[in-house]
Fold this protein.
Amino acid sequence: MQAKMNKTMEKEEKDILKKIRSSRACISDGYQLFTGNFRKLFRMTWPVALGFAVISAIASALPVLLSPTLVWPALALEALAVIVYLYLSNRILHKRSFLEKTEKASAAGWMRHLGMVLLVGIVCLFIVAILTLFTSLPSIIMMAANWESQMGVMNGDPLGMPSYVMWLSIGAFLLAGFLQAYIWLTTICPMYLAKTSIVLQEQERKALYNEKS
């Protein structure tokens, strides 16, 4: 009986996801979907989040612990890690039926709703930037300390930083990367709801056109 009730509730939740929303509703409902199901999302995605954390830590360590000239390769590696991580996470959430598969919207359909897509995307990226700033503070402090040490050594300071600081920095980079993985994950739900809304609007538009013709 309990299993049947759970299945009914899951079906109702998935039916609620499949409705036309405004840009504002896609954002608010998307973040509610994320926070309300965080434990489930964590169980599904922690392996790829851990992999992202490792790559992010390597990207952070390249210009800090090796050479400041590696800033651009580090940024490119970080960007690639974000793209791959979001792609894999999105596939996992669809494969585990957390997100239902929807029909593909045509290019013309995406262009008709480009304003909605841009608004949802910009707001999501703004929230990601704010949250990343707060969660990366320890990592930023370690970066600043290491750069100060390197500049001191270049200017003739023989002391530098203690050897344990390198491992402390790596630990800070790993922790920051793992937290950032779930910050980036928050973008999937609002964008999924926006895509679903676009698909449904295009279906209604097509049905209305067929009725008139």
About this structure: DSSP finds nine helices and no strands in the chain.
